[in-house]
Amino acid sequence: KRPMMASASTSLSRLKTTKPHFLDSKLTRSLYSDLAGSGEHLSSLSDETFLKNLLVVEAALAVAAAPEHAAMAKATIDSYQLDVEELSRRAAEGGNPLIPLVTDLKAINPAGIHIGATSQDIIDSALMLCMKEGVGEVVDKLKKLARDLAELTAEHKATPIMGRTLGQIATPTTFGALTGGWLVAVDNAARALEALEFPVSYGGASGNMTAVHPRGFEIQAKLAEELGLFDPQWVWHSDRTPITAIASALATAAGVVRKIAGDVVFYSQTEVGELREKSPGGSSAMPHKANPAAAIACDGYARRAPGLLATLFDALDCRLQRGTGSWHAEWATLRELAAVTHSAVSRAATSIDGITVNVDVMASRVNGPTGHAEDLAERALEIYGKGRS
Which of 54, 211, 66 is nearest to 124 (CA)? Predict the structure, then answer.
């Protein structure tokens, strides 16, 4: 199929998409992974959104680099019927999806299309659009979790519980001091994600803006403004630290909630019995069980984050002016890392929401003073409060 022309008034938000026959591309990875992880369709991280964002970036570039042709370029882009399966198959021929996409657009009308850019500029900018929205969704989940942890900490700042170190009973503390530690870590993870920058990319063929000299930096700034991305005032084609900065913050958030999940699993053990999830999971063979299912699922999703992070750090080996395979490895990996982090945080929030605290069982094991534990709980709440102000 080849696209037909449409009027220049067609909105980018109405870009047409033909649904592939073998998958629902609105889901990030699969029906199970998305819905079991968060109960939501993570459309911001899907292949469809990633490919649609290529068109969004091309339209913004037309405005930034060739305003005299912007209306025609937008009409060309709006008329394009994105077929995720077909474009994905054709992408294999040139190593990236932007090459066949630009070929199609220029076949309709080349005016204002892909001015001064290279494939990496459009793909990296499209990826940053995905990540800006996807990371924002992770932050929202972390903030919800933090609110619930703050309530637990305030309620149980003086609730005594035995501390455990190296898997063994240690000395008394309070449950509020424990949840306060969880709270500060979650709050720090959310702040780190909120502080991230999502840079636009615009460098041209060899990363020196030759095709649009001397207007390169001016166009880059305008492109960033159009897309709502950060203007790095630099070309980062072979400097992949913006990717690893995002990846590190995501993996840290996944690790933070995995620690909470691991603790919940321990405290929910039959022999311990100090916590119980609001809606524990059952067993197909043992109906008496009340598994901390949300915490267990959190652990499962978060456990994938270090491997994905390692792939992205390996991709820092971006050779010469364009990565040979390293760059290509980033597109799906970074989105997958955001997705598993989102799922892990979502499951952790579900685990903590409405959790039952068995204060009598906790107190029955305590055999001494709790020191500054209550003070630590209060300080955790202060730190959290300062972060919200």
Answer: 54
